């Protein structure tokens, strides 16, 4: 048993020279998985290879797939994801997955970058200071989420939870979204990927479906992300993600073109 020719070609592009031990111990499963993940699923959607690898890395952090993350980070570097972009994916995960989940992935990323000859630390990407983070963060939060939505969140927050709203503006958006290395559209895709992969974050994921639309990631892009994550996060969380997309951006509001293949 072996993956089909197209799956092997895609696999070899990402992992040149890699010989899977699972292909020896679990040939049937690897045939199913590689044919699905590296052929069938790749026929759908609009994501370029680099973006596909970046959202998959974000999702693997969210599901705590450390061993798979190590392998996929190597593939990402092979197809041109830069060290700065790789590190920014990990940094973007901190406010959403929490440092408890991200810590091991940060060390793994450093190990892999060092093994590739990258000197650490990388050039800093922060664009704010302790004095500007709140103002700048609130501005980018309103750009992404919508000014009316942000103002409503502040207005609706009880007095004893307004500090959380300030943390969202100053820390989540001010410390992270204002960083260089990735544009806002990519950061929002990463956030969407992490939220749907974690599960239990449906209200937040739904909010970020709308936020993605605000920065130019339409229904087709989000469906492409959900589809490319399917082999790594499973059907339940993928179907939950599609339900949220349908609720926020129903198919009838989009073009009726063929979504079955790449543009």
Structure description:
With 263 residues, the protein is mainly alpha-helical. It has a domain at 1-43. It contains 14 helices and no strands. The chain has helices at 5-14, 22-25, 27-40, 49-62, 66-78, 83-97, 99-115, 133-145, 147-156, 162-177, 184-198, 202-214, 219-233, 235-248. The radius of gyration is 19 Å and the shape is globular. Residues 256-263 have low confidence and may be disordered.
Could you give a short description of this structure?
With 263 residues, the protein is mostly helical. It has a domain of 43 residues.
Keywords:
263 residues, mainly alpha, 14 helices, globular, CMD-like, Carboxymuconolactone decarboxylase family protein, 4CMD/NDH-1_regulator, AhpD-like
Give a topology summary.
Elements: H1 5-14, H2 22-25, H3 27-40, H4 49-62, H5 66-78, H6 83-97, H7 99-115, H8 133-145, H9 147-156, H10 162-177, H11 184-198, H12 202-214, H13 219-233, H14 235-248
Helix pairs in contact: 1-3, 4-5, 4-6, 4-11, 4-13, 5-7, 6-7, 6-10, 6-11, 8-9, 8-10, 11-12, 11-13, 12-14, 13-14
Domain Carboxymuconolactone decarboxylase-like: 27-110, 164-246
InterPro entries: 4CMD/NDH-1_regulator, AhpD-like, CMD-like
Pfam family, one: CMD
Integer-rounded radius of gyration:
19 Å
The total count of strands amounts to: 0
Kindly report the average pLDDT value.
94
Distance between the termini: 32 Å
**Overall helicity:** 55-70%
């Amino acid at each position: 048993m072996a993956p089909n020719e197209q799956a092997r070609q895609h696999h070899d592009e990402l992992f040149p020279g890699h010989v899977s031990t699972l292909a020896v111990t679990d040939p049937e499963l690897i045939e199913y998985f590689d044919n699905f993940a590296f052929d069938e699923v790749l026929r759908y959607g609009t994501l370029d290879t680099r973006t596909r690898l970046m959202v998959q890395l974000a999702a693997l952090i969210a599901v705590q797939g450390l061993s798979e993350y190590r392998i996929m980070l190597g593939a990402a570097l092979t197809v041109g994801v830069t060290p700065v972009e790789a590190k920014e994916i990990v940094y973007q995960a901190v406010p959403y997955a929490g440092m408890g989940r991200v810590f091991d992935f940060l060390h793994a990323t450093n190990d892999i970058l060092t093994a590739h000859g990258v000197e650490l630390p990388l050039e800093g990407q922060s664009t704010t200071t302790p004095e500007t983070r709140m103002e700048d963060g609130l501005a980018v939060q309103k750009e992404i989420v919508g000014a009316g939505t942000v103002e409503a969140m502040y207005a609706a927050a009880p007095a004893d939870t307004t500090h959380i709203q300030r943390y969202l503006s100053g820390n989540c958006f001010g410390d992270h979204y204002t960083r260089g290395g990735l544009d806002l559209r990519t950061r929002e895709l990463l956030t969407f990927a992490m939220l749907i992969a974690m599960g239990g974050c449906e209200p937040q994921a739904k909010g970020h479906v709308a936020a993605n639309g605000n920065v130019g990631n339409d229904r087709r892009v989000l469906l492409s992300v959900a589809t490319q994550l399917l082999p790594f996060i499973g059907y339940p969380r993928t179907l939950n993600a599609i339900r949220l997309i349908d609720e926020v951006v129903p198919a009838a509001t989009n073009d009726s073109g063929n979504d079955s293949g790449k543009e």
